[in-house]
Specification:
- The protein has 253 residues and is an alpha+beta fold.
- It has 2 domains: 83 residues; 128 residues, Immunoglobulin-like.
- Helices cover 41% and strands 24% of the residues.
- The strands form 2 sheets. It has a 5-stranded mixed beta sheet.
- A hairpin with a 4-residue loop joins strand 6 and strand 7.
- Helix 4 runs antiparallel to helix 5.
- The longest helix is centred in the N-terminal third of the chain and has 34 residues.
- It is elongated.
- It starts with a helix and ends in a 5-residue tail after the last helix.
Length: 253
């Protein structure tokens, strides 16, 4: 019975390691940066977890019949070693997190379009209100409700404002999350790398209609995105053109 239990645990561990070894491709540079950080931290956390658990199992087994326990003996060398190791791990975690936070797609307010990492940007003005979303494309003078259409493989800069209370734009699949404050413009930036349809939520409790404050994000190829903008400028009707944008998505997420 005990052996079968250990075998099942080893199988689950092997399956988990296999899944970790082949992660799904990220849908945006934001999500890729966050996934890379999580992967780096997991490389550190997994060996530490295994070491602690094995030490615990050894201690339980080794001293299970110790009827006459002795006081712990001071070991300065061991204490210095684990203190130094803990400090090194914290430095690694801090440096890794710093480079992600310094990424212009994660902290857009600290970056400018002149940065070498950024290309030609599409600007979209986002208005959050109780309880919906409005998206305005200044370059084409196009406005949509509850549907955000983005070009693939192109930098997008969002200028976010709130009409009433604090909201938060959150697109989990794109690794995009930014609080929006009334009377203040905040920025968010992304570059979607896969076409598809994704869900957008408000991640800040904003009133009785908070749960229905959602929208759809559609990522199109550049040519399809240009065609969609042309359709909207032509004024063919919101419902039809939005449906056309969804129909153009080759592989919804």
């Amino acid at each position: 019975m005990r052996r079968s239990r250990w075998v099942s645990r080893l199988v689950l561990l092997a399956v988990g390691l296999c899944l970790f070894a082949s992660p799904a491709a990220a849908q945006s540079v934001n999500r890729a940066a966050i996934d890379d950080l999580n992967e780096q931290l997991l490389y550190v956390a997994l060996p530490l977890t295994l070491f602690v658990e094995l030490t615990l199992v050894y201690a339980v087994y080794r001293f299970r019949n110790n009827d006459d326990p002795r006081p712990t003996v001071d070991d300065p060398a061991l204490e210095i070693t684990w203190t130094a190791a803990t400090g090194a791990i914290l430095v690694f975690v801090g440096v890794s997190a710093f480079f992600v936070l310094a990424n212009p797609y994660i902290s857009p307010a600290a970056a400018s379009p002149a940065d070498g990492e950024l290309g030609d940007e599409t600007e979209i003005e986002v208005l959050g209100y109780q309880w919906g979303w409005e998206f305005h494309y200044p370059e084409a003078n196009v406005t949509t409700q509850e549907r955000l259409v983005l070009p693939r493989d192109r930098d997008v800069l969002f200028r976010l404002t709130s009409a009433d209370v604090i909201h938060s734009l959150y697109v989990p699949k794109l690794g995009l999350k930014q609080d929006i404050f009334p009377g203040q413009e905040t920025l968010a930036r992304t570059r979607a790398t896969r076409t598809g349809s994704y869900r957008l939520y408000c991640a800040e409790l904003c009133g009785s209609g908070h749960s229905r404050m959602q929208a759809t994000v559609v990522v199109l190829n550049q040519s399809e995105y240009d065609a969609w903008l042309a359709d909207r400028r032509a004024g063919d009707g919101n419902a039809d053109t939005d449906a056309n944008a969804t129909a153009r998505v080759a592989a919804p997420a």
